[in-house]
TrEMBL record:
SUPFAM superfamilies: P-loop containing nucleoside triphosphate hydrolases (SSF52540)
Keyword line: ATP-binding, Nucleotide-binding, Transport
UniProt xrefs under PANTHER family: BACITRACIN EXPORT ATP-BINDING PROTEIN BCEA, IMPORT ATP-BINDING PROTEIN
Single GO term (MF): ATP hydrolysis activity
Sequence ranges assigned to domain ABC transporter in this UniProt record: 5-244
Superkingdom of the source species: Bacteria
Cross-referenced Gene3D superfamilies: P-loop containing nucleotide triphosphate hydrolases
Protein name as it appears in the record: ABC transporter ATP-binding protein
Record Pfam families: ABC_tran
Cited InterPro entries: AAA+_ATPase (IPR003593), ABC_transporter-like_ATP-bd (IPR003439), ABC_transpr_LolD-like (IPR015854), MacB-like_ATP-bd (IPR017911), P-loop_NTPase (IPR027417)
Length: 257
């Protein structure tokens, strides 16, 4: 597999000297093309800061982030806009849909900003709407949708530009267990059938069990890694292994077996 994202010795501190919070304290990792990677950790461990640095919402204090070999901190102007619009698709916890736009308009908004033809827009949206089972709400406004429908509209919007990587920040956080399961099955299906690369931050062990690999962060550092690399391992067995690590993480221990 080819490396799509490289993060090297990434640091982000908040506060003044002497009373600093180390949100990221030397994070190094790689995401391979077609991988479904989960990032887990307790609240305040640095998970969302990491995702926001990759999305260029936050600038790290030091370290490097490379997407397909290109260092993203050096991107400016049109190149930065192209990176944000075409290279990454961001799936937010609280949907971030525009209330006065229909589902269809929310999904197609990124394409209108990047001059995609009407014909291609229609083809892409029909395919995604069918996959996410949201065809019946395309002409509705967010206030007329359930939480699960809103998040699937948001997922289609994140995918509409065929990004190199999907960044999902607690995508099941605002959903009940049923809709969370539906969403995760759809994301896992995209990863399995379309080779979509997904980097997901979550504290939800059920959601994490759909990943192929999980990195656990504590105090801004990666302290453990789990791989679902045994063919016969079931999702339930992987879920149990995740729970064991999270139990130790909750206890503040980095000595994970």
């Amino acid at each position: 597999m080819k490396t799509i994202l490289e993060i090297e010795n990434l640091r982000k501190y908040y506060g003044k000297q002497g009373s600093q919070t180390k949100a990221l304290d030397g994070i190094t990792l790689q995401v391979m093309e077609g991988e479904f990677l989960g990032i887990m950790g307790s609240s305040g461990s640095g998970k969302s800061t990491l995702l926001n640095c990759i999305a260029t919402v936050i600038q790290p204090d030091s370290g490097r982030i490379r997407m397909k070999g290109r260092e993203i901190q050096s991107l400016k102007g049109k190149k930065l806009a192209q990176y944000r619009g075409r290279e990454i698709g961001y799936l937010f916890q609280n949907f971030e849909l525009i209330d006065n736009l229909t589902g269809r308009e929310n999904i197609t908004l990124p394409m209108s900003l990047h001059n995609i033809s009407d014909q291609e827009s229609r083809e892409r949206i029909e395919k995604l709407a069918s996959y996410f089972e949201i065809t019946e709400v395309l002409e509705k406004f967010p206030a007329q949708m359930s939480g699960g429908q809103k998040q699937r509209i948001a997922a289609a919007r994140a995918l509409i530009m065929n990004p190199g990587i999907i960044l999902a920040d607690e995508p099941t956080g605002a959903l009940d267990s049923r809709n969370g399961k539906i969403l995760m099955k759809k994301l896992a299906g995209l990863n399995q059938d379309e080779n979509a690369t997904i980097l997901m931050v979550t504290h939800d062990t059920n959601a994490a069990s759909y990943c192929k690999r999980i990195l656990f962060i504590q105090d801004g550092e990666i302290f453990h890694e789990l791989r679902r690399d045994v063919p016969e391992e079931t999702q339930q067995d992987f879920y149990k292994r995740i729970l064991k690590v999270m139990a130790q993480l909750g206890g503040g221990s980095a000595n994970v077996l």
